[in-house]
What does this fold into?
Amino acid sequence: MISLAGRDILHSWGKFVLTGIGLGLLIGVTLTMAGVYRGMVDDARVLLDNSGADLWVVQQDTQGPYAESSSLRDDVVRSVRGLPGVARAANVTYLTMQVRASVGRDAGREVRAMIVGFEPGQPGEPGYLVAGRHVTRSHYEAVVDVRTGFTLGQRIRIRRHDYTVVGMTQRMVSSGGDPMVFIPLKDAQEAQFLKDNDAILNERARTAANPALNRPGVPGLLEAIQASQAANRNVNTVLVQVQPGVPAETVAEPIRRWKHLEAYTRAQMEEILVAKLIATSAKQIGMFLVILAIVSAAIVAFIIYTMTLGKIREIAVLKLIGTRNRTIAGMILQQALGLGLIGFIVGKVAATFWAPIFPKYVLLEVNDALLGLVAVMVICALASTLAIRAALAVDPAAAIGG
It folds into this structure.
């Protein structure tokens, strides 16, 4: 049997294909939006995987170190290491800031990055390198993610000091997608917590002017406070690896009870990052997906309806020769589904092509693509109902009318 829908499409194939391409670009944007959300979730999980931790010990009553700020004294790690079930524990700092190249042809170029201060050989160190070596000196060496655009041997500036890039890693990003720069812990503490010289002098003058600290009965107190102000040794979190076979919650519970700190397991930290930190972004993306679906349905409905009105006389002839309404409705439905299929193929190819050049990680999953195909077919089928109703209302007499 001759396909009426196919013959009609071939008759106006140029208009049909161009419409499918336009619809496909819109579907490509929809798939990309879904991929952006998947990428945000994957960034959060990769961040936790890269830390190598089973527990995150942070300041009490905070959800740090990623969703909120957290500040701990760096000697807390010693008491954590002594707890039963703890295999390793290490201080780590996190600071998001602008890092710029200090020398070379791209000197002055800035990149927003998360600065990670870590102890070599401990949790928090980058798990693998794609080039170069790990940090071996206690100062002024850095390992950077390839997405920073920095190269081996390049000098980069963080706060007041220059660092030499000695290693390159990959897929080390923050929950916001910013590439990571790993530097020694002491350097990171200075960058994040240590005040500059003017601030220290002003603080010392303010402290010295306090009469309560200059009484004869408190000798040495002023000097002790000033020394403490000049050497502030804080960290953002203590990353803990538990011994094999020991549940993380078993170690976390005494930390919360006796250390007056907060301890999060992997599942709890993932809940904070996915369900809370990116919740607003997820809602925004969801709204965009709904809007794009409505726009796609409106485009398909308009195109199919316009094409149907353009062949009113042909439909009337079909009715006059005895063609059943079901056949006419099937022809229009096939055209709508064909338009949707062309649009989906174009959209999937377009999304796959432009996803790698997005500044944020876009993760295109097969399940999302299959769900998108089903959604496109359903939308096209629903959108064709308006054209079908118009076709079924055509009077056969129009075939012989003036």
Summary: The chain has a mean pLDDT of 82. The CA atoms of residues 321 and 396 lie 9 Å apart. Residues 13-51 form the longest helix (39 residues). DSSP finds 13 helices and twelve strands in the chain.
